[in-house]
Amino acid sequence: MQPPPKKLLDQVRDAIRLKHYAYRTEETYVQWIRRYILFHNKRHPKEMGKAEIEAFLTYLAVEGQVSASTQNQALSALLFLYREVLKLEMSGIDAVRAKRPQYVPTVLTKQEAIAVIQQCDGIYQLVVKLLYGSGLRLIEGLRLRVKDVDFAQQQIVVRDGKGSKSRVTMLPSSVAAELRDHLVGVQRQHQRDLSRGFGTVNLPFALERKYPNANREWIWQYVFPSSSMTKDPRSGLVCRHHLHESGVQKAVKQAARAVKLTKRIGCHTFRHSFATHLLESGYDIRTIQELLGHKDVKTTMIYTHVLNRGGKSVRSPLDL
């Protein structure tokens, strides 16, 4: 007797895992596909096509008033559903598109950045130091493994960053000693976990099958592990995941309030500040592009607008 066919959303999860997408992407795509089906009164996507996709995306832009990035996220989820699961090609989607705002990112002065960092406590302060000192995105910093930190060459390898790209950035010398001490404590915790029969960590792609014992090795452990162990939603193993983003985000907001900043900042502000301060120090835009991992230099060029000087170092006539 053949087993019953898998439900559509389970098929979506299988296809996402086959392509080694992040668990966060899996949850996001499944959420959008579910919303799409409910929007069309639970019709099966096989019975729908381009017109229904356009109607849903237009609804998001007009009625939902979502941002352009949110609408693009929904479109990516639906295109994945049709191309990778239903094996149907969808092209020429012509929906009302959400307007993409032209904005200049918020940037802290060096003094403001240091003041906020000093107001953060414990492990959160060390994380934020790396966001500012190495130009990391928050999730990149939290996903760092022990093997990704090279103290000898004072560099950090960011693996599978945005767009599944890897890059190398600097390890600030002022943070190295503190990070070493932190890892001594993390290693002690890992040894205690192993002695209790735990100590595993989730591994990327198929490494867990290829190297069955690698998930207990020290080099694969997270640099910033969680204080508690949880069950991995994919493998079912009880393991120690990395710190949750929300803890760092709350610490940054509390620190910003404590120093009475009038700017609205978040964790990503430190990455913006990293790039802008390097530009101020005279580093060329291509070097900064590589450190940030931007695919196109046009993305990096936004920081020249932050400085209000473009490529010509324009000064106000009042200052001449």
Structural class: mainly alpha
Can you list the strand order of the major beta sheet?
A: 1-2-3
CATH superfamily of the largest domain: Intergrase catalytic core
CATH architecture of the largest domain: Orthogonal Bundle
In helices, the fraction of residues equals 40-55%
Sequence-ordered SSE layout with sheet pairings:
Blueprint: H1 8-18, H2 23-39, H3 50-62, H4 68-85, H5 110-119, H6 122-134, H7 138-142, E1 149-150, E2 155-158, E3 167-170, H8 173-195, H9 207-210, E4 230-231, E5 238-239, H10 245-258, H11 268-280, H12 285-292, H13 297-300, H14 302-306
Antiparallel strand pairs: 1-2, 2-3, 4-5
Domain Tyr recombinase: 103-316
InterPro entries: CB, DNA_brk_join_enz, Integrase-like_cat_sf, Integrase_catalytic, Integrase_integron-type, Integrase_recombinase_N, Integrase_SAM-like_N, Tyrosine_recombinase_XerCD
Organism: Chroogloeocystis siderophila 5.2 s.c.1
